[in-house]
Amino acid sequence: MGKLQLQRKYGKAYFESSGATDEAERGALIARYASLVKFLANRMAMRLPPSVSVDDLISAGMIGLLDAIEKFDPCRKVQFKTYAEFRIRGAILDELRNIDPVPRSTRKKIHDMGKAITAVEKKLRRPADDVEIAEEMGIDLDTYYEILDKARGIELLSLDDYVRSNKDNSESKESYKGLIQGDDNPERDVMFLELRRVVANAIKRLPKKEQMVVSLYYYDELTLKEIGMVMGLTESRISQIHTRAIIRLRAKLKMYQET
């Protein structure tokens, strides 16, 4: 398939063939998707402490974009923008792992919160509310909300980590980002579909407010401030709901892995 045919089928954002493009095409892609890098970096920065530099995230995201340009294969039935977004996000997350501004003590409290959620929900057979989670942790509500505030921006739910640690997955060293290319591997395709099913079911079992926040944030791509305006709540409260939802999802996925 020639370049003109590829452009007609996939659009100008696609490559003439797998691998690197010529310099003009490469430059055009960088110019076109630089705004996507800035958008993703700024969006992720909204959930991070002020000590994290947005410029550093943008620099990491640009490395992800360059990686996407080099490795994208137009023969796969995946849009370049979709593939690039995964690579950009992955590069930014790698940068965040390296700087990791979250104290170990906070991570332990988040882990304890996940365990408390699991314990309460097993006992009550319904989603645990804030009071019940705090009581299970042996703390008051103010301390509970302080933990949620400190947890803002932490990488609470990593699909990469989930795929790598899935004990029944023979391809456990493959990352979720790698799945987007689709290597005509039936076993991996089945794993990807199962992962989507588990995550979707876990989201459906979230309390209504948490479902709404997750949907508006990840599917409608609203900011936390915009979600607050829609739901009539403060940005800080939306941040707490979002963090609690992710901790709850993480706990549910952990329960799935252990069954």
- CATH evolutionary superfamily of the largest domain: PhyR, sigma-like (SL) domain
Give the C-alpha Rg. Answer: 20 Å
Number of helices: 13
Write down the domain tally. Answer: 2
The run of helices and strands is: HHHHHHHHHHHHH
CATH topology type of the largest domain: Butyryl-CoA Dehydrogenase, subunit A, domain 3
Q: Tell me the major beta sheet.
A: none
How far from one another are the termini?
47 Å
Structural class by secondary-structure content: mainly alpha
Strand content: under 5%
What form results from the Cα inertia axes? globular
Mean pLDDT, nearest integer?
77
Residues in helix, %: over 70%
Keywords:
Butyryl-CoA Dehydrogenase, subunit A, domain 3, globular, Rna Polymerase Sigma Factor, Chain: A, single chain, disordered N terminus
Question: Could you describe the 3D structure shown?
Answer:
- The protein has 259 residues and is mainly α.
- It is built from 13 helices and no strands.
- Helix 2 (23-45) packs antiparallel against helix 3.
- The radius of gyration is 20 Å and the shape is globular.
- It starts with a helix and ends with a helix.
Give the topology.
Layout: H1 3-10, H2 23-45, H3 54-71, H4 80-99, H5 104-124, H6 130-137, H7 141-150, H8 159-165, H9 176-179, H10 186-204, H11 208-219, H12 224-231, H13 235-258
Helix pairs in contact: 2-3, 2-4, 3-4, 5-6, 5-13, 10-13, 11-13, 12-13
